[in-house]
Design goal:
With 352 residues, the protein is an alpha+beta fold. The protein has two domains: 5-69 and 89-190, no CATH class; 212-246 and 274-345, Fumarate Reductase Iron-sulfur Protein, Chain B, domain 2 (Orthogonal Bundle). 30% of the residues lie in helices and 21% in strands. The chain contains twelve helices and twelve strands. It has helices at residues 11-21, 67-70, 102-116, 124-130, 149-152, 178-181, 212-219, 226-230, 236-240, 288-307, 318-322, 329-345; strands at residues 5-9, 25-33, 44-49, 74-80, 85-87, 95-100, 133-138, 162-165, 171-175, 188-190, 247-254, 257-267. Bound molecules: iron/sulfur cluster (2 copies). One iron/sulfur cluster (SF4) binds next to helix 11. It comes from Clostridium aromativorans. Residues 220-252, 303-332 form the 4Fe-4S ferredoxin-type domain. It holds the Pfam family Fer4_22. This is Anaerobic sulfite reductase subunit AsrA.
């Protein structure tokens, strides 16, 4: 039985609503940054605090995902002296209302698994932000170029407090979370139902790689060779990825006193040279094609082997959109499917 209610709001009503919500929440949503893109005269769309309806970029996919609200590109975790440390203060004192698409909200489930359920210890600095977040689902009336959320099953979600269908003069807002009801008492009820994508033009198949024997055969397949020349190892795909979580920690010591400093966590990437360097200077994936292979197999096999949760991908399409070398992640996945089939046909994986 549907317990949520939907309300109809004009644009000015949404501004009024935001003013009321802002007493309790900081509202984060995708915002267009004019001229802030990679190339001249290109914009970028980033997650920023918003106060008004018109600030939200509703009609295009954000350049980066909502993960930047939870795990900024760089953040100070704590400050230290010789014998004590102090935790960094949180940027937001209020709770956070985070606007995002179904795929992006689903990506937070994957982030949660990696930061909160990967071993015995939760990541404290992730959790302290995560505990403050409620989601506002943004309806996808049309798909964006290169999306394939229907192939990853991330086209729907029920993990939201409110859901919005913004359309200028008439805006529909479904209220699912009791806590939000009080903000909507003055608005007209509507029978609108929030829509989810049901089919994408782009369809992607994820290979089923059932065991390590097949992984090892796939690792030696020649399909990876082309990426040695094509990929430049810039890490742009993983920084933009909704589900990638790699970071590095650095202790910054202050010039005047080397016993005092701060520990920072900075977004990183398995695609970068030296990311996997260990004590003694050894590195496991020296070639770019090996790093690309690692990334793809982690998405398709490694994450699922660890969490039994399907691929580590929500089909947002940002990785391909951000790649300066025009490397298509869906095309790689399709090649991987062909390679798996080829190995099976050759009888090269008796255990599958
Ligand atoms: S791998 Fe690509 S499509 Fe999948 S979640 Fe990451 S950026 Fe989106
Ligand atoms: S964005 Fe493209 S070129 Fe850069 S690391 Fe990723 S696949 Fe390679």
């Amino acid at each position: 039985m549907k317990v949520s209610k939907t309300y109809q709001l004009k644009a000015e009503d949404v501004d009024e609503l935001f003013a009321k919500l802002e007493q309790k929440y900081v509202i984060y949503a995708p915002v267009r940054i004019q001229g802030g893109g990679r190339y001249a005269k290109q914009d970028s769309i980033l997650y920023k605090p918003v106060h008004k309806y018109e600030e939200i970029e509703y009609n295009e996919r954000s350049t980066y995902s909502m993960k930047e609200v939870l795990t900024p590109i760089t953040q100070t975790l704590f400050y230290f002296t010789e014998d004590e440390y102090r935790e960094s203060k949180m940027k937001e004192k209020k709770d956070i209302l985070l606007f995002g698409r179904a795929c992006d909200i689903n990506s937070i489930k994957i982030q949660d698994r990696i930061y909160l359920k990967n071993g015995d210890t939760e990541d404290y600095f992730y959790k302290r932000v995560r505990d403050k977040i409620k989601f506002a689902l943004m309806e996808c009336a049309d798909e964006f170029d290169g999306c394939f959320c229907c192939s990853t099953g991330t086209n729907r979600t029920d993990m939201y407090s409110i859901a919005v269908s913004f359309g200028g003069d008439i805006n529909n807002v479904e209220v699912k979370d009791e806590e939000f009801r009080k903000y909507f008492q003055n608005y007209k009820l509507s029978d609108y139902e929030i829509k989810f994508p049901v089919e994408n033009k782009l369809k992607v198949k994820f290979s089923v790689i059932e065991n390590l024997d097949m992984v090892n055969k796939i690792k030696n397949h020649p399909m990876w060779d082309e990426f040695e020349d094509r990929c430049i190892g810039c890490g742009s795909c993983t920084v933009a990825c909704s589900t990638c979580t790699c970071f590095e920690t650095t202790d910054i010591v202050y010039t005047q006193n080397a016993n005092v400093g701060e520990r920072r966590r900075t977004c990183s990437s398995c695609m970068l040279e030296n990311f996997d360097e260990v004590a003694g200077g050894n590195s496991f994936r020296k070639k770019i094609s090996e790093r690309y292979r690692y990334k793809i197999l982690h998405k398709v096999y490694g994450y699922n082997a660890r969490f039994n949760d399907g691929p580590m991908c929500v089909g947002c399409g940002r990785c391909s959109a951000r790649c300066p070398e025009l490397i298509s992640y869906p095309a790689t996945l399709n090649k991987l499917c062909d390679a798996v089939e080829e190995i099976k046909k050759q009888g090269g994986n008796e255990n599958v």
